[in-house]
Write a structure and sequence with these properties.
Helix content: 40-55%
Distance between the termini: 46 Å
Radius of gyration: 25 Å
Number of strands: 10
Strand content: 15-25%
């Protein structure tokens, strides 16, 4: 969505980059590879890339960047962005925040996000997520929110950013290693003022459940789908996943099985798929053991997969009620 932008001064990319810029260029090029950006959409103007701390001044032309375009290797980090010119819009955890010049924005790269930017100039610090969470335990409550760079605590953070970029050429790994520990604590102080606008726990839990359900439905066909895989896919611990679904009528993994059975049931009744074998359909939805599949199907629907297919061909409904939209009724789900 286009929105008014202030005039940006032309800032050409640096030619013949110095040693510290060459390392930064390599890192930020790798970071943006998955975005399939057009040449010139993002230009590195200055920066540093060490073992734990990376930062850069970047010039953007209008584009959209989302978690779907981010390679897995970067999902253990976060981006702390200071907007210098133009605007960026960040969406994460069900929130949308517009980051204006002088303000900070935070993106947790381990969770789904979307960034839409016009012509803009930013300074970004790439920080290890583990270090950031130690300083800001409720990280999900402050992502995608504009953090005013004019309040006292954020002003200190702005000063640190200014010094970082002014002295990027002099940066050493030993200094960078200390700074990567200091920046999250300064950020924590800057986020105190936004505590009142954090989402209530119930809203956050619902958002997490929606993330999990979306991930599961996108990976139902994968026979390796398990709680650990789901947790890694949405950036939540396995223990929190089980606690998250403790108030549901069935456990998370029983719901996964019920969703798979519903897909199989629907395809077995589809006349256009009559030439596909029962085992082929079951395996396509993640069932590797046909004996287990047949027993689960019978327990869920009160009929064997073969009998269900024959009954559906005759257009005669079985005695047990079955969902017509791919969903799973409570009666069916609790029988798994």
């Amino acid at each position: 969505m286009p929105y008014p932008q202030p005039a940006l001064r032309p800032v050409p990319p640096l030619s013949a980059p110095r040693e510290h810029l060459a390392a930064a260029q390599r890192f930020w090029d790798t970071f943006g590879q998955g975005a399939a950006r057009q040449p010139g959409q993002t230009v590195l103007l200055d920066g540093y890339a060490g073992h734990r701390l990376r930062f850069a001044t970047l010039s953007h032309t209008p584009h959209v960047f989302s978690s779907d375009q981010l390679s897995r290797e970067h999902r253990h980090a976060a981006l702390l962005v200071l907007q210098l010119e133009g605007e960026s819009r960040i969406e994460q955890h069900g929130r949308r925040g517009t980051i204006s010049p002088g303000n900070f924005g935070l993106i947790d790269l381990s969770r789904p996000f979307r960034v839409e930017t016009g012509r803009s100039l930013i300074q970004a610090a790439y920080l290890p997520l583990a270090v950031l969470r130690d300083a800001v335990p409720r990280l999900e409550q402050v992502t995608a929110l504009p953090l005013s760079g004019h309040v006292v605590a954020a002003a200190f953070l702005r000063s640190l950013f200014r010094d970082l970029f002014d002295r990027a050429e002099e940066m050493t790994e030993a200094v960078a290693d200390r700074l990567v520990e200091a920046i999250p604590h300064m950020l924590a102080a800057a986020t105190v003022a936004v505590g009142e606008v954090s989402p209530p726990p119930s809203q956050l839990r619902q958002h997490h459940k929606e993330q999990v359900r979306r991930f599961v439905r996108e990976h139902l066909a994968d026979p390796a789908l398990c709680a650990e895989m789901i947790g890694k896919g949405v950036g939540l611990s396995t223990s929190y996943l089980f606690e998250l679904f403790a108030d549901e009528d069935i456990t998370l993994m029983r719901w996964v099985r019920a969703e798979r059975l519903a897909r199989c049931q629907r395809e077995l009744a589809d006349a256009s798929l009559r030439y596909r074998s029962i085992s082929h359909i079951a395996q396509a939805w993640g069932f590797g053991d046909m004996t287990h599949f047949g027993r689960s199907f019978r327990e869920a629907y009160g009929i064997s997969p073969r009998s269900w297919r024959q009954t559906a061909r005759l257009d005669v409904q079985p005695s047990k009620e079955t969902p017509s939209d791919g969903g799973v009724s409570l009666h069916v789900a609790t029988g798994i």
